[in-house]
Amino acid sequence: MKKIKLLCLLSLVLLVLGACGTKDNQNQADKELPEFVEVELTVTPEHGQANEPIIFEAKVTQGEENVEDADEVKFEIWLANDENHEKVVVEHSENGVYRLERSFAQEGTYYIISHVTARDMHNMPKKEFIIGTPSEPEDPNKSKDSMEGMDMEGH
Questions:
Q1: Non-local CB neighbours of 98 within 8 Å, separated by 6+ positions
Q2: Which 3 state secondary structure label does DSSP give 140?
Q3: Alpha-carbon distance 3 to 11, whole Å?
Q4: Are 128 and 109 in contact (CB under 8 A)?
Q5: pLDDT in tens, 46-75
Q6: pLDDT digits (tens, 9 = 90+) for 85-135
Q7: Residue 46: CB partners within 8 Å, gap ≥ 6?
Q8: pTM to 2 decimals?
Q9: How many Å apart are CA 150 and CA 135, to the nearest integer?
Q10: Vertex 108: Cα angle to 103 and 111 (nearest 5)
């Protein structure tokens, strides 16, 4: 009978120690996972005029920290439904902000994606902006890949 009690007590102790170790391992894993790199993309003004400057800013943070050491920040800009996309590498300005100032001669609806690679992560928010009179916007449900294999009538 003593052996059974001792075996039960020993099993209980091992079970408790095993549970504590699992909790410690989980806490350690939580500490090792870095916070996601966040990117807040702004366009000022969102409705501009031809040949007037537009300011694009990508505010890059990780938790409460400004990311001033991104591996690469690139702005991809294009006129709606145009296959030609301009890509501009942008340097850090201040306080985690990567800034580009640009003017556009052609009126229409434009898009910008900021491609941010920092601390082994990638984030790429997208914004729409308008210069002068808007043009036909892109269909968000239609991708370049879905157009392949279709004839001119869409079949």
A1: 57, 58, 60, 70, 73, 90, 91, 92, 114, 116
A2: coil
A3: 12
A4: yes
A5: 999 999 999 999 999 999 999 999 999 999
A6: 999 999 999 999 999 999 999 999 999 999 999 999 999 999 999 999 999
A7: 127, 128, 129, 130
A8: 0.71
A9: 24
A10: 75
**Cβ count within 10 A of residue 71:** 12
Q: Of the candidates 34, 30, 42, which has an alpha carbon nearest to the alpha carbon of residue 96?
A: 42
Q: Nearest 5°: phi and psi at 80?
A: -50, 135
What's at 5, amino acid-wise? Answer: K
Superfamily grouping for domain 37-138: Immunoglobulins (2.60.40.10)
Q: CA 89, 93, 98, 104 torsion: positive or negative?
A: negative
d(C-alpha 86, C-alpha 112), whole Å:
9
Tokens of 102: 């640009």
C-alpha atoms less than 13 angstroms from C-alpha of 128 in its C-beta half-sphere:
11
Burial of 135 (0-12, 13-18, 19+ CB in 10 A): middle
Question: Are 93 and 99 a contacting pair, CB within 8 Å?
Answer: yes
pLDDT, mean over the chain:
83
Strand 37-44 with 54-62, pairing: antiparallel
Q: Tokens 């920290």 label which residue?
A: 65
Residue with tokens 């850090």: 92
Q: Hey, is 134 helix, strand or coil?
A: coil
